[in-house]
TrEMBL record:
One Gene Ontology term, aspect cellular component: cytoplasm
Organism: Iconisemion striatum
Gene name per UniProt: ACSS2
Highest taxon, organism lineage: Eukaryota
Protein name: Acetyl-coenzyme A synthetase
Annotated ranges, domain AMP-dependent synthetase/ligase: 99-509
Record EC number: 6.2.1.1
Residue intervals of the Acetyl-coenzyme A synthetase N-terminal domain: 30-89
Aminoacyl-tRNA synthetase keyword on record: no
Length: 682
């Protein structure tokens, strides 16, 4: 699986300075540790576990599992019998045992240049304990689910760590999602409390988050589900009283348009609650397999899946991947540009970095605001050493050339990373050459919400890089490539990417629906975890992700379900049927191309197109807004009524070579669809 020697041709190498101090300094060392992690995971991960505090030690097998649905229920268990608290390991351990209390945990950089603050590990611990006591005063207890719908502020980290300190389970909803999406997630996980903010700016755009939160809670009430308490952070407030005990300064930009509705029966002010709260709170000691958090990801059926991660395994895995993939050193300044509302922000802004006592940049804004040099200005301002962003952002900034990058020195940078989707070789080369000046290795990481952390990735000093390749598996991860029949392919090959055994950080179930968990990830090929991605392995053993195999789209690094978008479209009174496919996009990677069949008495026009886009935005969120909507009097279907999506993808891309369409019930539909193509998509 791993070649005996690293290839010497068609590869890029990291700097020699990096190799001298690296945790994994050579390919030979990587291979030695990898073999140990696969053949003796208890020894490998047991050594990692010694760096953390355990109230009680594990008693059973270190890692026990069943991946074969034909042999019984699917399960993964790590360190059964052990008890710990992840918040204690992230904060108390760093403050009291490692003497890092005065070390900066986060440099917060607001949307507006000049909006900034720092928070140390000691200050963060105090705030977390205070808010943990606030949650307890509101009746939140171990096992309860808490929904968090907040912008990228320090209080978001405080809220999530306060939950896990008392054993509550956080369910964070990205602040770009709609009220409908928030309502759906609150109800699915049966949350007892919501934490939100008044509003925030994303570049020039003011988002009234409280209005959306209220709308979501009303939708919950209409469906018979009542949330009694909503805690509101006044992030944009100019009321001095509201800013007592707040870590977030008000935005420098005035917000005269922000009206914050207030329901005294439900709403409580974050700042007022914090004023009277003690900054001491004993942690709740949790079993290894107790739930840690639920994070929703799009499902191919259209209903989002609540991915459930548990305490010990997730902690070990995010801590180790962060340390080794970014080659973390004590004096690093690390910056991940993701939002905490996604798994990248959970694992590589909050849990992984704090477990290593790292200093991170927490950024509220956009890479292009107030200008396209913002990222590089921040890199120089904080002397960022390790930088982790999405290929979408890289492709966006590429459009403006090298001059906005080269205005800044970027001398501090040592490692560059990418996340969210495969990076195309052209963007990789620009990132490596222009941003990193050919001296910073690029770690192109492949992983999913479900995997918890990196599963295929380069290591900065150990593995030579190929532009666009996810390289080799991380420690403890055993990939395989299967054909349609479920047979493992050897050597250079292409097919379904699967994993043969678990690692500590893999998801444990879909919240409230273990059957869906088994069906989605294990039923197609018993004995394997099925990623849903296609993959190619080259002659040197490098892995290349080729894209989703199921009905999912990867837009700007975020997975969207075609069924979810189709469902939103057909809810419009004019639409009878809808089909959504992907079309390549130079910046976002993929864009949404939608075919809609209308009722007989309805005419397709620009007004209807605007209405349909608005409908999708309101149902799912702005990120799901269709790029193209095409009138489709008929859709290409087989005689059994199944829509042939591969044909629609060809039409969306204006590719006339359709392959075999002999199973189509009516081939004349195809000609009509080509004639009706969106002219902007030519």
């Amino acid at each position: 699986m791993i070649p005996d020697k690293a290839p010497k041709e068609d590869v890029f190498h990291g700097s020699e300075d990096l190799k001298r101090d690296a945790h994994v300094p050579s390919f030979e060392k990587y291979k030695e540790l990898y073999i140990q992690s696969v053949e003796n995971p208890a020894e490998f991960w047991g050594a990692v576990a010694k760096d953390f505090f355990w109230k009680t030690q594990h008693t059973g097998q270190f890692l026990d599992y069943n991946f074969d649905v034909t042999k019984g229920e699917i399960f993964v268990k790590c360190m059964e019998g052990a008890t710990t608290n992840i918040c204690y390991n992230l904060l108390d351990l760093n403050v009291h045992d490692r003497n890092l209390g005065d070390k900066i945990a986060f440099f917060w950089e607001g949307n507006e240049p000049g909006d900034e603050l720092t928070v140390t590990y000691r200050e963060l611990l105090q705030r977390v304990c205070q808010f943990a006591n606030v949650l307890k005063s509101q009746g939140v207890k171990k096992g309860d689910r808490v929904s968090i719908y907040m912008p990228m502020v320090v209080e978001l980290v405080v809220a999530m760590l306060a939950c896990v300190r008392i054993g509550a389970v956080h369910s964070i909803v990205f602040a770009g999602f709609s009220a409908e999406s928030l309502c759906e997630r609150i109800m699915d996980s049966q949350c007892s409390l919501l934490i939100t903010a008044d509003g925030f700016y994303r570049g020039e755009k003011l988002i009234n988050l409280k209005l959306l939160a209220d709308e979501a809670l009303q939708k919950c009430r209409d469906k018979g589900f009542l949330i009694q308490t909503c805690i509101v952070l006044k992030h944009l407030s100019t009321d001095p009283e509201a800013l007592v005990s707040s870590h977030s300064p008000p935005a420098k930009r005035p917000c005269p348009d922000l009206e914050v509705p207030w329901n005294p029966e439900v709403d409580l002010c974050w700042h007022m609650l914090m004023k009277g709260a003690s900054d001491e709170c004993e942690p709740e000691w949790c079993e290894s397999e107790d739930p840690l958090f639920i994070l929703y990801t799009s499902g191919s059926t259209g209903k989002p899946k609540g991915v459930l991660h548990t305490v010990s395994g997730y902690m070990l895995y995010t801590a180790t991947t962060f340390k080794l993939v970014f080659d973390h050193q004590p004096d690093d300044i690390y910056w991940c540009t993701a939002d905490i509302g996604w798994i990248t922000g959970h694992s590589y802004i909050t849990y992984g970095p704090l477990a290593n006592g790292a200093t991170s940049v927490l950024f509220e804004g956009l890479p292009t605001y107030p200008d396209v040099s913002r990222m590089w200005a921040i890199v120089d301002k904080y002397h960022v050493t390790k930088f982790y962003t999405a290929p979408t952002a890289i492709r966006l900034l590429m459009k403006f050339g090298s001059e906005p990058v080269q205005k800044y020195k970027r001398e501090s940078l040592k490692v560059l990373g990418t996340v969210g989707e495969p990076i195309n070789p052209e963007a990789w080369q620009w990132y490596y050459t222009v941003v990193g000046e050919k001296r910073c290795p690029v770690v192109d990481t492949f992983w999913q919400t479900e995997t918890g952390g990196h599963v295929l990735t380069p290591l900065p000093a150990a593995t030579p890089m190929k532009p666009g390749s996810a390289t080799f598996p991380f420690f403890g991860v055993v990939p395989a490539i299967l054909n349609e029949s479920g047979e493992e392919l050897e050597g250079p090959s292409e097919g379904y990417l699967v994993f043969k055994q678990p690692w500590p950080g893999v998801m444990r179930t879909v919240y409230g629906n273990h059957q869906r968990f088994e069906t989605t990830y294990f039923k197609k090929f018993p004995g394997y975890y099925v990623t849903g991605d296609g993959c190619r392995r080259d002659k040197d053993g490098y892995y290349w992700i080729t894209g989703r195999i199921d009905d999912m789209l990867n837009v700007s690094g975020h997975l969207l379900s075609t069924a979810e978008v189709e469902s939103a479209l057909v809810e419009h009174k004019a639409v009878v049927e809808a089909a959504v496919v992907s079309r390549p996009h130079p910046v976002k990677g993929e864009s949404l191309y939608c075919f809609v069949t209308l009722k007989d008495d309805v005419t397709f026009n620009q007004t209807l197109e605007v209405e349909l886009k608005k409908q999708v935005r309101e149902k799912i969120g702005a990120i799901a807004t269709p790029d193209y909507i095409q009138n489709a009097p008929g859709l290409p279907k087989t005689r059994s009524g199944k829509i042939m999506r591969r044909v629609l993808r060809k039409i969306a891309c204006n590719e006339k070579d359709l392959g075999d369409i002999s199973t189509l019930a009516d081939s004349s539909v195809v000609d009509q669809l080509f004639q009706n193509r969106c002219c902007a998509a030519v």
